[in-house]
């Protein structure tokens, strides 16, 4: 029996089984569209076909000499991931293509889907590692070329935050909608506040990212505890943090839990903490998944003065913004928490969880993809 649903190709050069944003796209579209995926790892549940990127292909590898010489199109054309994708995909026909991040966009455009191409940019690509001079000097101009030549030709574009959307339009003339990295709505109620307050952080074990937060909790005078659920990147950093704090009375390190269990695990705590120093444009204006995970878990949220996150925390009254990014600033904020304040913040998260959820946010993908499917006929 022929599948009469519109055909949708979702491309992401990531490990799909742990890419929460792309998995939300797949869950959103798999019932009403015949979804084919491209990415690392096995086929996600509910797709009609899957092209698995070989593990030996590193998606960001390009010929350095060509990039240094600014022969950008040839650098893209000769990249291993480009050659593989063209062999797999060019000549196939789809109604709509949803390309995640920059690298798949040129191939998606070349495929000429009947309705068009929607692009979802997860970072501000040209400033991903702007603190590294090699990136600023060589890769940023290369990525800028790809945006100007290829992303501008997409039918519609989304990104993860308002400042990134503003900057894409200002710098490249690419208007973007915004889809926050919010998880599915959970039917939970705020738990009772512990004494002392229980802090929690869940995320990647990236060297340098956790030190200030850990130092802050070491300085805390009021007895607050911190539990960390760390995704091991393979660098050994997660193990070193665990070993360092194995006997600490107030800091406890755990393995990461599956994404499907994360919100329920977080719900046992009182305040979710995320302090991201503004070492780059993307860090300064980040709006990460974990903020929305904390809200869905009905926690208070404690962050540094990062503009996008701070605006959301203040708009919904779900927590606290430290004065600065130092350990002393964060420790002072933690020591200022009262059980009543935490209970109020948890109650505000309960209200905010109704809107800061995937069910509300995914309209930013559903509407443009639906428009392209209609165009395809």
Q: Please estimate the helix content.
A: 40-55%
Rg over CA atoms, rounded to whole Å, is 22 Å
**Average pLDDT across residues?**
96
- Strand ordering within the main sheet: 3-2-1-4-5-6-7
The domain tally reads 2
**The CATH top-level class label of the largest domain:** Alpha Beta
Shape type: globular
- Provide the low-confidence segments as ranges: none
> Which CATH architecture of the largest domain would you pick?
3-Layer(aba) Sandwich
Tally of DSSP helical segments: 17
Largest sheet: 7 strands, parallel
Assess the beta-strand content as a share of residues.
Answer: 15-25%
Per the CATH scheme, the topology name of the largest domain is Rossmann fold
**What is the CATH homology-level superfamily of the largest domain?**
Glycogen Phosphorylase B
The secondary-structure element order is EHEEHHHEHEHEHEEHEHEHEHHEHEHHHH
> What is the number of strand segments?
13
Which secondary-structure class do the elements indicate? alpha/beta
- Measured between the Cα atoms of the first and last residue, the distance is 20 Å
List keywords for this structure.
377 residues; 2 domains; single chain; six-stranded parallel sheet; seven-stranded parallel sheet; 41% helix; Rossmann fold; alpha/beta
How would you explain this protein's 3D organization?
With about 375 residues, the protein is α/β, with parallel strands linked by helices. It folds into two domains: about 5-180 and about 360-375, Rossmann fold; about 200-350, Rossmann fold, CATH 3.40.50.2000. The chain contains 17 helices and 13 strands. The chain has helices spanning about 20-30, 65-70, 70-80, 80-90, 105-110, 135-150, 160-170, 210-220, 235-245, 260-265, 280-285, 290-295, 305-315, 325-335, 340-350, 360, 365-375, and strands at about 5-15, 35-40, 50-55, 95-100, 115-120, 155-160, 175-180, 200-205, 225-230, 250-255, 270-275, 300-305, 320. Strands 3-2-1-4-5-6-7 form a seven-stranded parallel β-sheet, sandwiched between helices. The protein has a six-stranded parallel β-sheet with strand order 10-9-8-11-12-13, sandwiched between helices. Helix 8 crosses helix 14. The two termini are about 20 Å apart. About 45% of the residues are buried. Keywords: Transferase. This is Glycosyltransferase family 4 protein.
